[in-house]
Specification:
alpha+beta, two-stranded antiparallel ribbon, flat, binds zinc ion, Putative orphan protein
Length: 98
């Protein structure tokens, strides 16, 4: 089954990142060395067909304490939602948890 997933997988994120890396390195020219280029907010999930980068939803709120008092500070957090389709080629991901 893993072989099936691999053969049906696309390499869009890898290919796009390689193209972006080349442009960045070319634009930097001789003014930079050891340039590191990578996706932000990558997700790595073992044994599944998933997008390596997924949208994040940020949220913030004010906590209500046990006595009903409202906290002065803002609590900030975020969650990541997983995409069902490749954003480059539109291929549907075959998730392990079908
Ligand atoms: Zn793709």
């Amino acid at each position: 089954m893993t072989e099936n997933l691999k053969s049906e997988s696309c390499k869009c994120f890898d290919e796009y990142l390689a193209a972006v890396r080349e442009k960045i390195v070319n634009n930097l020219g001789d003014n930079a060395i050891d340039t590191k280029v990578e996706w932000s907010n990558t997700t790595w999930i073992l044994g599944g067909d998933y997008a390596p980068v997924n949208p994040q939803v940020k949220f913030e709120y004010r906590k209500i304490k046990k006595g009903g008092e409202i906290a002065k500070g803002i609590t900030k957090d975020c969650i990541t939602v997983s995409a069902n389709f490749c954003c480059f080629c539109g291929r549907k991901y075959q998730k392990a948890d079908k």
